[in-house]
TrEMBL record:
<dbReference type="GO" id="GO:0016787">
    <property type="term" value="F:hydrolase activity"/>
</dbReference>
<dbReference type="InterPro" id="IPR013976">
    <property type="entry name" value="HDOD"/>
</dbReference>
<feature type="domain" description="HDOD">
    <location>
        <begin position="68"/>
        <end position="263"/>
    </location>
</feature>
<dbReference type="Pfam" id="PF08668">
    <property type="entry name" value="HDOD"/>
</dbReference>
<dbReference type="InterPro" id="IPR003607">
    <property type="entry name" value="HD/PDEase_dom"/>
</dbReference>
<keyword id="KW-0378">Hydrolase</keyword>
<dbReference type="InterPro" id="IPR052340">
    <property type="entry name" value="RNase_Y/CdgJ"/>
</dbReference>
<dbReference type="InterPro" id="IPR006675">
    <property type="entry name" value="HDIG_dom"/>
</dbReference>
<protein>
    <submittedName>
        <fullName>Metal-dependent hydrolase hdod</fullName>
    </submittedName>
</protein>
Length: 329
């Protein structure tokens, strides 16, 4: 690559390696002594073209979803048994085929979060006392905890880190719906658990492009989602929405997950706005969050929740997370 001194116009041939450094380099012109600054190239076309991206890669990922990431068997069967004519006896038999899972379901049912400490001794009792929707919510927690508890090296997430965040978002989403007096709190809870599931699927693709991701985020300070969009040309939210569709979950939920970072693009999907706010609230439970970003201001304008109610929601969410976290992971 050639560079030219801005003062005396002397041209120098430099190594391409200098351009690929991640920091600004300053050389001295031997002719006039002036400084020549070499700005790092963020991403070269050659580097981007070395890895598949765009529609072809997205299609490959989507085609592998159902084969590589089927809905947990127990959860799939439980959803079937609890829809229509509810068969609690068969559900109890199903869960008892996996004693460890059944034990975890009962442990969570007796947690402080559900207010039934020590009172629930069987699956049928859980269904009677807590209701089928709550029981399915508990089974969902157990079913997803292993999948969401993985270490994600590409994203730099330790074991259990994604699970804790997903649980926090689920709790916040449900509390938001309750505050709005909506009737789909259970859908919001499930959507909260699933909102970042696309990261599990994309993690190996991120690892394959780790240098590109690290370089881009370091030089631009871009968010994870913006970096995915730049390098893959789609995001974990897009793939999370596709996973919901493969699992035959409601389209409203799939759309909400797909647009949980950009709810204004969701076509008025209210759950997308709920997830957007819940995601922001959940991050605030573990670390201080600065002034709300512009997109969150749009969300707060869309969802009629007073600021004082948000503070109360955060307190309730923190209490709920503390009571559930240990029992679910």
């Amino acid at each position: 690559m050639n560079i030219t001194c801005a003062h005396c116009s002397k041209t120098y041939r430099i190594s391409d390696d200098l351009v690929h450094q991640i920091c600004r380099i300053q050389l001295m012109c031997t002719a006039c002594g002036s400084a020549i600054a070499i700005e790092p190239q963020i991403l070269s076309e050659e580097a981007l073209q070395a890895h598949p991206s765009g529609a072809a890669l997205r299609q490959e990922v989507v085609e592998n979803l159902k084969k590589l990431y089927p809905m947990p068997h127990i959860l799939l069967k439980a959803r079937t048994l609890l829809s229509g004519q509810k068969n609690f006896k068969e559900l109890e038999h199903l869960l008892n085929t996996d004693p460890a899972l059944a034990g975890r379901v009962l442990k969570i049912a007796n947690s402080a979060y559900y207010g039934m400490s020590g009172k629930v001794s069987s699956i049928q009792m859980a269904a009677t006392v807590l209701g089928t929707d709550t029981l399915l919510q508990i089974i969902t927690l157990v079913g997803y905890s292993k999948m969401l508890g993985r270490t994600l090296e590409g994203y730099g997430l330790d074991s259990g880190e994604l699970w804790k965040h997903s649980l926090a978002v689920a709790i916040c989403a449900r509390l938001i719906e309750e505050t709005l007096q909506a009737k789909n709190g259970d859908d919001a809870f499930l959507a909260g658990l699933m909102h970042d599931a696309g990261k599990i699927i994309l993690d190996t693709y991120i690892q394959d492009r780790q240098q590109l991701f690290s370089r881009y985020t370091h030089l631009t300070h871009a968010s994870t989602t913006a970096t995915e969009e730049k390098i893959l040309e789609f995001t974990h939210a897009d793939i999370g929405g596709e996973l919901c569709r493969k699992w035959n979950l409601p389209e409203t939920m799939a759309t909400a997950i797909q647009y949980h970072h950009t709810p204004a693009d969701s076509g008025g999907n209210r759950l997308a706005y709920v997830l957007n706010l819940a995601d922001h609230m959940a991050k605030g439970l573990s670390t201080a969050v600065d002034e709300p970003p512009d997109h969150l201001k749009e969300t707060l304008a869309y969802l009629p929740i007073p600021e004082i109610a948000l503070k109360d929601l955060s307190r309730k969410a923190q209490d709920a997370l503390e009571s559930l976290e240990e029992d679910t992971y």
